Fold this protein.
Amino acid sequence: MSSVVSSDGLRLLKSGLDGSRGPLTRLAAWSLVEASPALASGWVTATAIDRGFLADRPLTGLAWLALLACLYGARAGAERAMFPHFAAVVEPLRDHLVRVLVAATVEQAARRGRADAAVVSRLTRQVELVRNLVATLLRTARPLAVTLVAAVIGLLLLDPIAAAVVLPPLLGVLLVFPLTLRPMMRRRRALILAEEQVAVRTGESLGAARDIFALAAREHAVHQVAEATDAYVHATVSAARFGAVRVLLVFLGGHLPLLALLLAGPWLVTTGRISTGELVGAITYVTGSLIGALASVTGSVSGYWTQLGSTLTRLAETVTPTAQAEPAEASACRPVGFHLTVDRLAFSYGPQAEPVLRDLSLEIPQGDHLAIVGASGIGKSTLAGLLAGLETPGSGTVRLGSATLGRLDPALRSRSIALVPQEAYVFHGTVRENLGYLACDATDADLTRAAEEVGAGMLLDRLGGLAADIHDPVTQLSAGERQLLVLARAFASPAEVVILDEATCHLDPSAEARAERAFAARPGTLIVIAHRLASARRARHTLLLDGADTCLGTHEDLLASSPAYAGLAGHWDARHSL
């Protein structure tokens, strides 16, 4: 049945269950107690009849039945005792899936420049579905498997002749049944993809509602959503129809052997091959354990398993780029030095798109202060993402010291390079947590000094110090104040390379100058995506991006040698004078 789940899906499930060995072991121990009635029911019934009621010893027969009742009582106690262990397995699994999915979604959004609308369905319905299905399978498939094994063992011990009548068709169905799982899984997968398309089409239509009404495209938008909904209905019906196969399997593997046993029973008893009690005990095994377990395995349990397999496979497809291990050499790769080398770099957002960057080569010495300038949309932020390792070049390489950036261990890369974007991300929590999560070893003094260096000292005082709680960053802080906190966070980090991608755009010129001077004085390399001429003047070198033509030099050299840079500087001056 493992073939129903892809290898990536199994790895995702296994990673979520790591650390649950203790609860799973306790569940297995309680399962042995839970299986005791299935193991003993037929044998106890046969003994109660043969040695009790048919031997004119009714009290003995009642005593054996009382023993069976005690076993069922023990089973009920075992089922009750297992619930805390279920929670100890499924709740950490859900938390793990949410963490992995959020991390993958954020990374993919950063790479693509947009979020995947279907992630809402994955984070809500699909993750919760995996949690519920794993819990359900632990509550149902686990005892059913134990019941089947226990009943088969009990039947073999009770009477081999009865077992020879019952077990061959039962085992045949259990061998054939897994072959039906793949077709069922394909239908379940189609159902999940159809559900995602409903979420995507609906989300796109709601997000573009104003444009839809403005362009009189309401009918087209409704048609798109209705088309996705019809596909979902069709996938649901297809999966339900295939589920009818289980009725035939239960008949062949359970009811047919029972019929054969009932037909052959009188002859077996009258010829002395089995006793009356053994016949009744064998029927008890079939009706009390085997038919019910087989019906559940081929019905609800198989449905749960194929649904779990399809959902896990789909989730694994969305997180595989993040979850996959780096190449073996990547984890051992350590840069020597922190200078950045760009060699014939090219990048475009799609195979048919015009390249944003083409054949760019550049050396940024360790400890340099570089400003990157150019017209809006020319590729400055794209270059920042490439230098930070968040984008993958179409061709060419970016090296940090002696190591290719893409082959660096991700944890080492994130410690070595800090990219501060224009959008300042401040999270719910204390000021200390916001400033220190890139520098786990930083003391309160280090964090306070970082805030003061970039000009956030007064903000720290206003908030009430490092222990102050930021409960609503949007209403509690202005855009400029959020940028100051993020700048202090990057300043306190151990990063050898800091890239400010218009990270001071909401600060006034004097606050921006103070922050940039602080980073320039900080050990390491500073790269600034400039939106003001003053940033280029403060830099040691300036890189002008101008399509296929790029220029690198000091501010004064570029003013004298590059008409494009001179024109850009004139535009900046004119805008500033306004």
